[in-house]
Amino acid sequence: MPGLRELLSRFRAAGAPGAPGAAGVPVDLRAGVTAELEPVFAALAETVAGCERRRADGAAEAQRCLDEARGRAAALLTQAKGAAPAARAAAAARTRRLAEAELAAIEADSRATAEELTRRAEGRLPDLVNEVVERVRHDIAALGDGTRIGSAP
């Protein structure tokens, strides 16, 4: 590897502006750079190969993970397809139970309403019967008087 002096000599100008001086020889930069960098690249060759191996290993591991994930997804999908009929049946049974419970509540409410109406009607029935009897008596009495039936008392 060249020393500092040789490294800096690459940058020496072939001729300086101003008064004529000693003639300089242009330096072949390519030859110097190649000779200087060959040992660096040679030392890096093992590191580059190691990086390539790691990259290849990482790509293989990623592919294995991807294949494993695809397999798990396919298994889950198969399991879900197998469990779907049972889940549908359970949901239908749950919906049926809820509908039956709602129907029972509506029936109980309807019975309670019907019983209340029956009680109210039974409470009003004697008054209505008395009113009808009074009208009939009034109409019969009106027949005897010669007045018209159906007129207000």
Q: Which ranges are low-confidence, i.e. pLDDT below 50, for 5 or more consecutive residues?
A: none
| Distance N to C terminus | 140 Å
Q: Describe the sheet with the most strands.
A: none
Give the tally of β-strands. 0
Structural class based on helices, strands and sheet pairing: mainly alpha
Question: What's the oligomerization state?
Answer: single chain
Write down the overall mean pLDDT.
84
Helix percentage: over 70%
Range of strand content: under 5%
The number of helical elements comes to 2
Give Rg in angstroms.
Answer: 56 Å
> What's the overall geometry?
rod-shaped
Describe the structure.
The protein has two helices and no strands. By secondary structure, the protein is mainly α. The radius of gyration is 56 Å and the shape is rod-shaped. It starts with a helix and ends in an 8-residue tail after the last helix. The model has no long low-confidence stretch (mean pLDDT 84).
Keywords:
single chain; 153 residues; mainly alpha; 80% helix
Topology:
Layout: H1 4-9, H2 29-145
What's the gist of this structure?
80% of the residues lie in helices and 0% in strands. With 153 residues, it is mainly alpha-helical.
